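User: Can you predict the 3D structure for this chain?
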Amino acid sequence: MPSPRRNVEGRPLGASVSSSSSGGGGGPGSPTHGSGGGGSSSSSSRFEFQSLLGSRGSGADPTCTRLRQSESPVHRRGSFPLAGAGPSQAPPPPLPEEDRMDLNPSFLGIALRSLLAIDLWLSKKLGVCAGESSSWGSVRPLMKLLEISGHGIPWLLGTLYCLSRSDSWAGREVLMNLLFALLLDLLLVALLKGLVRRRRPAHNQMDMFVTLSVDKYSFPSGHATRAALVSRFILNHLVLAIPLRVLVVLWAFILGLSRVLLGRHNVTDVAFGFLMGYMQYSIVDYCWLSPHNAPLLFALWNQQ
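Assistant: Here is the predicted structure, written as structure tokens:
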């Protein structure tokens, strides 16, 4: 409860007013005695008005002040108080290092984004056979025929046919390992495509020879891996003349290039496919199947 208002002399205002009004005919010490009664009443009113102004301006009651501050919309919203409204609050503690946003990307991230942009731009520029209305649309049937020559199904069927017609142990050994290499290539490419899931270029037309579920993905190029694998396998295990060896290398290179010209793959898909196929042959050569380390396999094939 606020304290009762007091006048300038320190006495309660009610007491001074009552004392001035009670003794109309009081003694000589009374404020209303004699002809100076009117001046005393105006002086008392002036003292009361000044005390009211003083109590309103000074904000003597701290309880009312706190209530007014709590009712302000700034306090209700939890914002920081304005200057002079109260004691300044301490700034919030800084966030830990792992919760801060890194506004400066690393050099590696910038380089990878730049290479990706260059890859997409170059692949779109080189896709000159992606459609019949393209600049080299008349060469598209030839590119599609070259595409079939590197497909996995013709190579698997041809290897199985040659293996069934072969009557020498050396020929069967080479064809058996070629079949193992083709199956390994299909498995690794399908696994990597399912993990990366990079979509084919937007300008590609899905009119390929035979497609599987993973063929909607682009990275890596299965034709490029197969071309590098088969060409290295042939050059290492078949005795060929120099023109034929050059023709095998040109077939592998043109087959990889046709994937970009047809819009099937990006440049990086083909480049990684060549590297992957080259490394796959090292796996096949390390795990080379022969009648000495895989006798059961050759025995089963001989019974068939």
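Residues 225 and 277 are 4 Å apart (CA to CA). The chain has a mean pLDDT of 75.
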